[in-house]
């Protein structure tokens, strides 16, 4: 027998042994690992908004994919017994008997692919990941959870005592191993973190341990579960996308003509959406005059219906027609000439959300007071920890994202509520919940040359602290 034939036989024997084993497990008590699976369902419901198109590889009895309430849910398992149990328990979902190494599914594209406790049980993780690419679009997210090697002995003991789901010898991949496999198969790791400090139910104590202690040092080093999120690379994005630049303007009459002259044309066409915010000067009239003087520019002028920059941005985004949405402050503290840098990162697929950062280059004199600078650095640290991606400058007014992603953020806005007067955190929270790839572009921050800031430093500072606490409950401690 050749080496290749030996390898194929070993692979076939491995799969046959596991298929038989999981068939026996399917007839065992459903209580095995019950609280652990409930906790996983809580984590995944937070990661996957209801109504998504979801594929799960190694779905078992189907409780996890059912928990995220998909509009289209497809579960794959190579155990016929497991699939039959899933079909009986969740008749509204689709369950297919198939080997993850050689998928032959209908040509669906999914929003999310769940790989829960599966990578350590596979013969060839790289082959499995390659099978997923045809079912991914640029927005698709792969969600992994797998056990920490630190728990190998406690889990073995729990299985001997009959309080954990039985298992065969595992691969025990590390997060580095999984990240490497993702990169060599055309995916990009986005986030990684730990969950579940207490996998058994102990009234009150398990909830406190898993919701709070498991998220902070040093306890998170002891967590049972590693989680990772990844996205596919090389997937099609709009060619030569168009742009809408939303300019929220309140008491900015002296900047309007300069904005019209300096906002560049980008991509497949640039729309400028001015949203005037009930000014006490003649900003509305100044915008109207500038539009009349520049018929060559694609512009529109809206009157803000509510209060706050956040309301103005949402009003502008609702009228925007571009593929890419940009926010530019009317005070020109961020140079409009920097916008093509943001555009390039979006158009080439490097990022899905681009945030300006004012804290890299030296600032112009009087551009930001010392108290504001200290506060910005604190909130940058806080939100980087909360969102799981580095955010150096949460309050930079220039933010860029795809209109399709903004629509998804707006659709799920009720999860966070609507109390952000700035609009920055509404977008950052939404982007984090969708696990968008966030990148930052350093800009040279300029001092305002006309008018006064619309931000109340102390009142809005207190509001920002409230938002940090709120985000911690809705993003981190779930």
SSE blueprint:
Blueprint: H1 3-26, H2 34-47, E1 53-57, H3 63-67, E2 72-77, H4 80-89, E3 94-97, E4 110-116, H5 125-132, E5 136-147, H6 152-160, H7 175-184, E6 187-195, H8 205-211, E7 225-232, E8 243-249, H9 256-262, E9 270-276, H10 283-293, E10 298-303, H11 308-319, E11 324-327, H12 339-347, E12 353-357, H13 370-387, E13 399-402, H14 403-411, H15 424-433, E14 438-442, H16 457-476
Parallel strand pairs: 1-2, 1-4, 2-3, 4-5, 8-9, 8-11, 9-10, 12-14
Antiparallel strand pairs: 5-7, 6-7, 11-13, 12-13
Helix pairs in contact: 1-4, 13-16, 14-15
What does this structure look like?
- This protein has 478 residues and is of the alpha/beta class.
- The protein has 2 domains: 3-232, Vaccinia Virus protein VP39 (Rossmann fold), CATH 3.40.50; 243-476, Spore Coat Polysaccharide Biosynthesis Protein SpsA, Chain A.
- The chain has 16 helices and 14 strands.
- It has a 7-stranded mixed β-sheet, sandwiched between helices.
- Helix 13 runs parallel beside helix 16 (457-476).
- The longest helix is centred in the first third of the chain and has 24 residues, at 3-26.
- It is elongated.
- It starts with a helix and ends with a helix.
- The model has no long low-confidence stretch (mean pLDDT 89).
